[in-house]
Amino acid sequence: GHSLCNLKELGDELTTMSDENYVFHANAKKNDFINWIRDVIKDEKLANDLKKAMNHAHAARLVTSRIAALYKRLA
Q1: Tens digits of residue pLDDT in 19-44
Q2: Which residues contact residue 59 at a Cβ distance below 8 angstroms, ignoring those fewer than 6 apart?
Q3: Contacts of 61 (CB under 8 A, 6+ apart)
Q4: In sequence order, what are the beta bridge partners of 36?
Q5: Residue 13 has pLDDT above 70, yes or no
Q6: Which of 14, 38, 39, 59 could cross-link 47 (Cys pair, CB 3.0–4.6 Å)?
């Protein structure tokens, strides 16, 4: 795979990601997306919201929604 640099890239990647690839990164043993968002991006809210994601499409919607909410706060 390749490295992602920001939430937008993560949202874009989740949108096109296969179910198999999503499950490799987010399963009962680990969740690379939650860990990265919590530890690197420092967004506890989004990390907690992603715990509810059932698949990559749901995770993509959560990330996209969070980005929109953050942009709205800036306006």
Answers
A1: 999 999 999 999 999 999 999 999 99
A2: 14, 22, 26, 33, 50, 53
A3: none
A4: none
A5: yes
A6: 38
Please check whether residue 37 is in contact with residue 46, taking contact to mean a CB–CB distance below 8 angstroms. Answer: yes
Name 74's Cβ contacts closer than 8 Å, sequence gap at least 6: none
DSSP 20-75: HHHHHHBSSS-BHHHHHIIIII--HHHHHHHTT--SHHHHHHHHHHHHHHHHHHH-
| C-alpha distance from residue 24 to each of 31, 36, 71 (Å) | 9, 15, 30
Three-state SS at 1: coil
Residue 75's pLDDT is 86
Within 8 A by CB and 6+ apart from 49, the residues are 62, 66
